[in-house]
């Protein structure tokens, strides 16, 4: 009987130990499952996108438990918060719940995104969000087609340029007629000597005769003078 009692005690202790191990394993499994279902920072993601010409930052929560979380977005400048862009609350889902922050972000800008969800999450999404290097642009607007009224007129509507005339120009009146006679007033005036002779009638032989007579008078006077002088010299002897 004593032997049986000892055996039963040993079996009971082993059974208790086995049950304890099973219970601990179950607790650990439940805790792990609870932690897996609880909200965590890995379930949040952020992206910088374009909504037409406007820039936006989106944050997506894929928490299947749907625990509400507050998301805050900050613009960074040299590692510090320069501006708070906004703050919104998101309730995650298995498919993913997305919230949008409208901000005209600049290329290569850095944003810090902080998530706080009850006692589960209170940290930033790592790494910080960096915007693309290309800014947002609107869709290219097609250039308006030129209307028919503003289009260049065709060759049929253009006014032809006048053709150059091949006939020689008619001669001018002053070229075809002889030059007019020079007026008498423009004719050269006669020499002064010719005019005086014409007026006094000196174009006859009267001048020559007068000159010969004057020469004879001079010669005669000289002869008389020399003759009188010789006579006076002879009388004085």
**What would you call the structural class?**
alpha+beta
The sequence of SSEs as H and E is: HEEEEEEEEHHH
The DSSP helix count reads 4
Strand coverage percent: 15-25%
Structural shape: rod-shaped
Whole-number average pLDDT? 74
Distance between the amino and carboxyl termini: 243 Å
What percent of residues adopt helix (DSSP H or I)?
Answer: 25-40%
The biggest beta sheet is recorded as:
5 strands, antiparallel
Instruction: Please mark out the parts with pLDDT under 50 across 5 or more consecutive residues, or reply none.
Output: 26-36, 174-184, 190-202
Count of individual beta strands: 8
What is the radius of gyration? 70 Å
Structural write-up:
Strands 3, 4, 6, 7 and 8 form a 5-stranded antiparallel beta sheet that branches. By secondary structure, the protein is of the alpha+beta class. It is built from 4 helices and 8 strands.
Short description:
With 237 residues, this protein is an alpha+beta fold.
Layout of strands and helices, then pairs:
Elements: H1 2-37, E1 44-51, E2 54-61, E3 68-77, E4 80-91, E5 97-102, E6 110-117, E7 121-124, E8 129-130, H2 173-176, H3 192-200, H4 206-236
Antiparallel strand pairs: 1-2, 2-5, 3-4, 3-6, 6-7, 6-8
């Amino acid at each position: 009987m004593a032997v049986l009692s000892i055996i039963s005690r040993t079996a009971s202790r082993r059974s208790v130990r086995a049950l304890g191990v099973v219970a601990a394993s179950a607790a650990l499994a439940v805790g792990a499952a609870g932690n897996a279902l609880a909200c965590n920072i890995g379930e949040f993601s952020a992206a910088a996108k374009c909504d037409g010409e406007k820039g936006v930052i989106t944050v997506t929560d894929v928490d299947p438990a749907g625990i509400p979380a507050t998301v805050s977005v900050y613009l960074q400048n040299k590692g510090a918060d320069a501006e708070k862009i906004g703050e919104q609350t998101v309730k995650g889902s298995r498919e993913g719940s997305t919230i949008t922050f409208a901000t005209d972000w600049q290329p290569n800008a850095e944003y810090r995104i902080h998530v706080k969800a009850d006692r589960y999450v209170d940290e930033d999404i790592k790494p910080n969000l960096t915007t693309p290097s290309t800014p947002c642009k609107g869709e290219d607007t097609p250039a308006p087609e030129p209307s028919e009224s503003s289009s260049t007129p065709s060759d049929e509507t253009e006014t032809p340029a006048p053709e150059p005339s091949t006939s020689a120009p008619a001669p001018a009146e002053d070229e075809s007629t002889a030059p007019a006679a020079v007026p008498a007033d423009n004719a050269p005036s006669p020499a002064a000597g010719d005019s005086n002779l014409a007026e006094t009638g000196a174009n006859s032989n009267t001048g020559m005769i007068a000159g010969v007579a004057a020469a004879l008078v001079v010669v005669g006077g000289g002869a008389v003078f020399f003759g009188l002088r010789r006579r006076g010299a002879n009388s004085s002897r």
